[in-house]
Amino acid sequence: MSQVKKAIITAVCMALCVVLPLAFHAVPNAGSIYLPMHIPVLLCGLICGWGYGLACGVVGPLLSNLLTGMPPAAVLPAMLVELAVYGIAAGLCISLIRTGKLYADLYISLIAAMLTGRIVAGIARALIFAPGTMTAAAWATSYFVTGLPGIIIQLALLPSIVFALEKARLIPARYPGASGSQ
What we know:
mainly alpha; Arp2/3 complex 21 kDa subunit ARPC3
């Protein structure tokens, strides 16, 4: 895929980092429950690679904060770390994992990225952003329990979106010539 196409996809994902949270925030606490900003960052990493995923993970939340005030300034630094790691990890994993099956590659990469981002963000909060206040229970609650609906949405949607983009030939096929039932 050309650098221009990757840049355009990244710009669209950055715009989605602003628009998706607006749609979800009509519901109280929807950001921490449905994790709408995670979707475009993970998608960008999976499609465009780690560098573009990193850019989306940093620029997307910053743009959203500047244009809408979401995420709030108090949450923004830890969220920048989390989303940057999502973009990097999704891009690295998808480039390294090759099972021969598109959906397997996508799910393995997605789960690895989601776990890595949550672990690194938890460590960053515990050591840098909120030292002494982050417990293992608070980390598990905020990163897994509260966000469970968002995690389910990500696991349900993202692999199918990538598959649909490949099928529509909007992005290159990962396994050219393979049957459509990956």
